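Could you join me in thinking about how sequence relates to backbone shape in a protein? We need material for that, and I hope you will provide a protein of your own picking. Label the sequence line and the structure token line clearly, so we can match residues to local backbone shapes. Would you write everything just below, so we can both look at the same thing?
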Amino acid sequence: MGLPLVQLPSYTAGAWYTRVVSRASAFRLPDSPSISEAPARRDYVGTGRSPADFRSQPRASKTRRYAMSDRGIFTAAIVTAVLILAGAFVLPQFFFFESAKALIFIAIAVLVFYGEDRYSYMLGIVFPPLWLIVDVVVGALGQDFRVLLDFLSGHYGTALNTPLHAVARLTVIVLFILSLRAWRKQVPEKFLGKTFWSCLVISLVYIVLLTMWYLRLFSKG
């Protein structure tokens, strides 16, 4: 009498492979971070921020760096420079002198355009009062506004006068107000600091050179 045959369970190749893979996955070690991911993980662990925030941070800071500081100041500086340059074309005999007067306003507009908010604002605060004071001393301010009033009343002046100069004085007052307001709101530095004295020296040197040029031109005339 023979021994009873025990029927063993038969496994297909697919079932055997699935069983082996499931057992191996239970003992698999967690993946280690790659070299490029490791510093990023160390940076944001414990901060509650994701790696995407850290990847976007350099781009955001670069965008803030090159953003325009103040659109109003940029517009006022550009309009003032355009008015002065237009007056230079109206008075071709004083073209280079009038063009030199517009340089500081072009510099303010360029600084504001590239996001500089200290020297651009302070130049817009310091230079306009000094310019108006010098105009009052040499008698140019009253003459320019008389020309503007005559132009508005329909009485045109001589070829050596243009109402554009008086309009430029008005826009420079707007530049002063906007620069002072922007400084108080955006710049944490104290007013009478390094920036103020640097801009004061720049403005004084610039005005002295223009005044000497002005007196030389009209002494020849």
